[in-house]
Amino acid sequence: MEKEEILEIFRETGAFLEGHFLLTSGLHSPVYIEKFKVLQFPRYVEILAGEIAHHFSGEKIDVVAGPAVGGIILAYEVARQLGVRMAFTEREEGKMVFRRDFQLKKGDRVLIVEDVVTTGASVEEVIKAVEGTEAQIVGIGVLVNRGTKKIPFPYPFYPLLEIEAQTYSPEECPLCQKKITLQKRGSRYLSQEESRA
Question: Which CATH number fits domain 3-191: 3.20.20.70, 3.30.1300.10, 3.30.565.10, 3.40.50.2020?
């Protein structure tokens, strides 16, 4: 698929948002990718995951792994299309780990997937979790790389879409200086009542 076709899917589903947003990293940005606006549609997940699966199809992958939560959906579909296992990491005492009896064996060839990357911190945590086993990482596939800097991942990195969305520290944010309302999106910012639902 062409990059414009992929971006059109994000626009059509309302996943590409513009305004003033607080990112998970704590940075502010005029662009936000509401990934679940796309991930709620199985047909789009199938198309986008298929692009990642196709890109890495020559790598003899054994396991596709991603971080909870959005990475679970993507890892499942990429693994389904490659005909291999999937696994996901989740936080335990502040650290990304494999739980629920997911096990990577010595020699397993692992593809890491993620939905949206800004600083690369979540992917780096999954990398550490995989490297803590005797499995071998063959690459990283993501739906969107929205960072403005090249992330020096030590493995082949394949983003379907790259959006150079500027980010700012809260102290230097021009959107704050213009008093544009800051929007807090994502599960991290749900109220306690919502998160218990």
Answer: 3.40.50.2020
